[in-house]
Amino acid sequence: MDRELAADLAELGLTATEAEIYLALLEQSAAGPVSAYKLAQDMGRDPANMTKTLGAMAKRGAVQATRGKPRLFAAVPPADFTGALVQRLQAKQRQVVKRLETIGHPPGDESLHPLDTRQQILEVARRLLGEARRIVLVDASADLLGELAPELARAASTRSATVLVKSAARVAIPGVRVWIDPGEDALVGAAPGPWLRLAVDGRGSLEALAHPGDADQLLHGFWTRSPARAFLAHRGLAAELILADVGELLRAGASADLVSRRAADQAALLLRQVDWRQRWREAGLPDYPPAAAAAAAEGEGFQPATPGADESGGESLQFIFRKPRRP
């Protein structure tokens, strides 16, 4: 019995006894499945306890059992078993971290958590992306975007989140829409270092600017679960992504009507992906009444336009500017 391997398996979540049984089953795998009684005899264990332990291991995905009598047991292939173990541990880790972070912080926590190193940027960004369920908005320099590409692809493919990115270079990420701002070349030359802005599900946001010559030094960096900051970060990034999309259409020679409809549809899509009212309730904030919102909009000089049907039969959601009425 390889005691070091047994200890490694125990660190992954198996008990010491389960780790020894799993290794014993692997050693006998060439002979095929074995009964609990035979395995107990070979290992010098109590048959009744062996049956109980193997049943528990089968539920956890460590062993597979045949139907019928007597039941025979075999070890699940190591890659499959350990991969499932790691996934369960990661899921549990996310749940525990989320609960721990609420200790001492109310649901509407406005705290800003500083980031001090580039590694912290990546660690926090990966944690936020691991929680993504609906929408992820990103503005990033090409190097930081490349390092986060696997997590962005996983959010898009595994959890079906909408992932929209603006960057200084086109980075191919499966399932992710990436725009390049035509002014990014100039921005890269003017930027003091790599940057990342991230908004996830209206529940968390991050912004950071790294030192160009020192990976362990940041010029600026924080992350937060503040609902208010998440709202502002989401709206800001959404506006920039819409502008990037409109610019791409204009460079392709699209008509003004198509550009207008596309911008309106993009805006509606981005804002529909997050239930902001639910976020305010979770944070213990009062609703912003629709009547007050409409009055505020009119006071600012904006009036919702009557939705007009486009050629596809859908509706184009637009706002038109007009001068405020004279009293």
Q: What is the topology?
A:
Layout (H helix, E strand, L loop, with lengths): L2 H9 L4 H12 L6 E2 H8 L3 H13 L3 E3 L6 E4 L2 H23 L12 E2 L3 H14 L3 E6 L1 H16 L4 E6 L9 E4 L3 H7 L4 E6 L3 E7 L7 E7 L2 H25 L4 H17 L3 H7 L7 H10 L2 E3 L3 E2 L5 E2 L2 E3 L6
Parallel strand pairs: 5-6, 6-7
Antiparallel strand pairs: 1-3, 2-3, 4-10, 5-8, 8-9, 9-10, 11-14, 12-13
N-to-C terminal Cα separation, in Å? 89 Å
Cα-based radius of gyration, to the nearest Å: 27 Å
Please indicate the count of domains.
3
Strand order of the largest sheet: 4-10-9-8-5-6-7
Task: Output the keywords.
disordered C terminus, Arc Repressor Mutant, subunit A, Endonuclease, Chain A, elongated, 14 strands, three-stranded antiparallel β-sheet, alpha+beta
Give a verbal description of the structure:
This protein has 327 residues and is α+β, with helices and mostly antiparallel strands. It has three domains: 3-80, Arc Repressor Mutant, subunit A (Orthogonal Bundle), CATH 1.10.10.10; 114-285, Endonuclease, Chain A; 288-327, no CATH class. The protein has twelve helices and 14 strands. It has helices spanning 3-11, 16-27, 36-43, 47-59, 78-100, 118-131, 142-157, 184-190, 227-251, 256-272, 276-282, 290-299; strands at 34-35, 63-65, 72-75, 113-114, 135-140, 162-167, 177-180, 195-200, 204-210, 218-224, 302-304, 308-309, 315-316, 319-321. The strands form four sheets. A seven-stranded mixed β-sheet has the order 4-10-9-8-5-6-7, sandwiched between helices. The radius of gyration is 27 Å and the shape is elongated. It starts with a helix and ends in a 6-residue tail after the last strand.
